[in-house]
């Protein structure tokens, strides 16, 4: 059997498991990055040395290469299940380490400058929600009015929107309730009362946004050409919310994990560890412990 045969099986199985946005990323990798290198090959003839040579073709981050390897491993696993091969050649690939990029949150001064500089009303509303809830961009444009409970002061995150449509949030724990901070409340209330559409954010044509790339491409990126602020991508609003909440002692890692939609606090500790006790803990040496 050919490599393409098992790549096709792999994709068909993944299509039933993954969200559309994730599946199309997998499909693009298989069709454009992997199959061209192993086209018309019997899968049993592909050796580990060829996989190592294939990896040398890509000048990409280790994180991306690990994603490629994971897909390759899955394709060969399908052949193992059919007893076309006895072992997975991916097991002989060297282990790649992911070098984590340092989080560079915006300072309070920068946040206020960005918010004051945002002239488009919808963009400003988007930024207020992003900076004061830590919600993902797709979750923000997916908000409906029914998700806002002003009495309980919570936002119920139930869905996300992206270029491949509307779906549930990124993970199961992504379905959650997010507190509405007092500073966000009036902005959210004004936006809520400004129109009759079921979605919270709508375009000038009275239709909901399909994804958050409109805010990124049309407003966020051009805005930094006018501001004397180091550019960071729009997703950094989420990092900024998390670091400000932790460094000021406004919440615990466990509670922040729930607000951000993580299954547990492990991700919070891994990504934001240096902000958790960043000068906030004064150790008392004069302790009679027992």
Automatic annotation (TrEMBL):
Domain Core-binding (CB) per the UniProt entry, residue ranges: 1-80
SUPFAM superfamilies for this protein: DNA breaking-rejoining enzymes
InterPro entries referenced in this protein's UniProt entry, alphabetically: CB, DNA_brk_join_enz, Integrase-like_cat_sf, Integrase_catalytic, Integrase_recombinase_N, Integrase_SAM-like_N, Tyrosine_recombinase_XerCD
Keywords: DNA integration, DNA recombination, DNA-binding
Coiled-coil features, chain-numbered ranges: none
Signal peptide: none
GO molecular function: DNA binding
Residues covered by the Tyr recombinase domain: 101-290
GO BP terms, alphabetized: DNA integration; DNA recombination
Family per record: Belongs to the 'phage' integrase family.
Protein name: Tyr recombinase domain-containing protein
Origin species: Sulfurimonas hongkongensis
């Amino acid at each position: 059997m050919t490599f393409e045969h098992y790549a096709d099986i792999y994709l068909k199985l993944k299509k039933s498991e993954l969200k559309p946005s994730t599946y199309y990323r997998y499909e693009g990798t298989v069709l454009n990055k992997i199959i061209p290198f192993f086209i018309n090959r019997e899968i049993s003839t592909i050796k580990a040395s060829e996989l190592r040579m294939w990896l040398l073709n890509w000048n990409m981050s280790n994180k991306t290469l690990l994603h490629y390897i994971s897909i390759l491993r899955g394709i060969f696993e399908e052949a193992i299940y059919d007893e076309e091969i006895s072992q997975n050649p991916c097991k002989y690939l060297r282990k790649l380490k992911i070098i984590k990029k340092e989080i560079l949150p915006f300072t309070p001064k920068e946040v206020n400058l960005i918010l004051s500089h945002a002239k488009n009303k919808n963009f400003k509303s988007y930024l207020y929600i992003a900076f004061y809830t830590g919600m993902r961009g797709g979750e923000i444009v997916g908000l409906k009015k029914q998700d806002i409970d002003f009495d309980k002061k919570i936002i119920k995150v139930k869905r996300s929107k992206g270029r491949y449509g509307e779906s549930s949030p990124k993970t199961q724990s992504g379905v959650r309730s997010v507190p509405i901070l007092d500073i966000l409340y009036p902005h959210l209330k004004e936006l809520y009362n400004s129109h009759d559409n079921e979605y919270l954010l709508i375009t000038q044509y009275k239709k909901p946004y399909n994804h958050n790339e409109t805010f990124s491409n049309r407003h966020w990126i051009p805005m930094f050409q006018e501001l004397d602020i180091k550019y960071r991508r729009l997703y950094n609003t989420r990092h900024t919310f998390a670091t400000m909440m932790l460094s000021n002692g406004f919440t615990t890692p466990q509670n922040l994990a729930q607000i951000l939609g993580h299954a547990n606090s492990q991700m919070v500790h891994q990504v934001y560890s240096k902000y958790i006790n960043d000068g906030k803990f004064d150790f008392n040496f004069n302790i009679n412990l027992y």
